[in-house]
């Protein structure tokens, strides 16, 4: 039985350099690791769907506190893992979507870095409330989200329209999470301290929001840089 045929496809060729590779700073993963992700793409999809299911369970109490109309802005990390599962699955069936890939790229980098950021910054209470095992799982699994985002350049060159849609969605999500919720209160992931609690020279909410703002810009820069490097080739 052809394992690759059952679990994935031969990886797409992407890159701008003579050896078919983008510069390391926009495509940091070894080519062999990218190949494995595509040859076993249905395994990667399944893992992300399991992560999505766990994430929705993790947010269950927050869903209960937020108006139904705002639920789309609540499950940040599981939303990102769902997007990359859909993006990779669409490629696997021969219907790849630049828009899905861009949304998945933004989400997995932004949330894959933001969660470790707040876990480290607010570690005393996070560690006390979640316990060492869950704390370690959340930290490692979210860093894994960042790594998997860097396989997506093999299936898209991040056209401007797709990047614009991803930028618009994650900017809107940022506004709902921290600044101007349309209905009810802000929808950011629950933190182990009250939002107004002082934290050094600012507050807990402002520390979390600052990280989210920066980490919305990072994937935008990386997506456009990847496009530039691809076109340059």
TrEMBL record:
| Top-rank taxon, per record | Archaea
Keywords, sorted A to Z = Membrane, Transmembrane, Transmembrane helix
The UniProt transmembrane annotation reads 40-59, 71-93, 100-122, 134-152, 164-184, 204-225
Q: Which Pfam families match?
A: DUF1405 (PF07187)
Q: What is this protein called?
A: DUF1405 domain-containing protein
* Organism in which the protein naturally occurs: Halorubrum rubrum
**Highest classification ranks of the organism:** Archaea, Methanobacteriati, Methanobacteriota, Stenosarchaea group, Halobacteria
């Amino acid at each position: 039985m052809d394992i690759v045929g059952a679990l994935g496809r031969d990886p797409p060729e992407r890159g701008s350099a003579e050896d078919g590779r983008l510069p390391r700073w926009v495509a940091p993963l070894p080519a062999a690791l990218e190949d494995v992700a595509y040859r076993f793409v249905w395994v990667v999809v399944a893992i992300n769907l399991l992560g999505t299911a766990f994430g929705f369970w993790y947010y269950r109490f927050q869903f209960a506190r937020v108006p139904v109309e705002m639920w789309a802005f609540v499950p940040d990390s599981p939303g990102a893992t769902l997007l990359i599962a859909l993006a990779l699955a669409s490629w696997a069936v021969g219907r790849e979507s630049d828009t899905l890939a861009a949304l998945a790229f933004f989400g997995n980098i932004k949330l894959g870095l933001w969660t470790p950021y707040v876990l480290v910054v607010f570690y005393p209470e996070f560690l006390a409330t979640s316990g060492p095992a869950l704390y370690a799982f959340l930290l490692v699994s979210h860093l894994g989200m960042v790594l998997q985002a860097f396989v997506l350049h093999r299936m898209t060159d991040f056209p401007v329209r797709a990047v614009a849609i991803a930028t618009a969605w994650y900017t809107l999500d940022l506004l709902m999470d921290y600044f101007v919720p349309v209905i009810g209160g802000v929808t950011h992931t629950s933190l182990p301290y009250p939002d107004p609690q002082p934290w050094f020279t600012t507050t807990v909410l402002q520390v979390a929001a600052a990280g989210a703002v920066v980490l919305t810009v990072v994937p935008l820069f990386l997506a456009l840089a990847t496009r530039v490097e691809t076109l340059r080739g």
